[in-house]
Amino acid sequence: MQITAIITAGGSSTRFGSTNKLMEKIHSKEIIRHTLDAFLSVNEISRIIICANKSIIDDLKTIFDNDKIKIIEGGTTRQQSVFNGLNACINCDYVLIHDGARPMISVETIKKAIEMVKEKNELNNRFEKELE
Fold first, then answer.
1. Angle, CA 32 vertex, CA 36 and CA 50 arms, to 5°
2. Residue 80 burial (C-beta neighbours within 10 Å; 0-12, 13-18, 19+)
């Protein structure tokens, strides 16, 4: 089973100030790194796609030199960024979508979401078989 996580990071952080908030550091680590570290800790996730603002793509490529991570250009809205991420998904069964500016996501929450999706899919498959 292939699970892809799409991390939206396409915003310009205009309300934040002159820098992109995702590149600000908390405890010596960029906010986006806190977010990605949680997803990288979940073995079931086979691919992570970061849909980033053009202005930080080079910085992200420097921070995340990992074959599991693909960095693409996001859109002007969250919906466009998600759309770009979905278009970049190849051979995946499930997709998780999370905002890069939400670094407090826990590994447990991610694992629980995966389990819930698997259970829901199992129930749907059973229901479809009963209808046949």
1. 65
2. middle
Radius of gyration of the chain (CA): 16
Cβ atoms of 31 and 24 within 8 Å: the answer is yes
What crossing angle do the helices spanning 107-131 and 31-40 adopt, rounded to 10°? 50
> Contact 7/48 with Cβ under 8 angstroms?
yes
What pLDDT digit, counting tens, does each position of 83-120 carry?
A: 999 999 988 999 999 998 898 899 999 999 999 999 99
Q: How far apart are the first and last CA of the chain?
A: 25
Q: pLDDT tens, 32-81?
A: 999 999 999 999 999 999 999 898 899 999 999 889 999 999 998 889 99
| 36 φ/ψ angles, rounded to the nearest 5 degrees | -65, -35
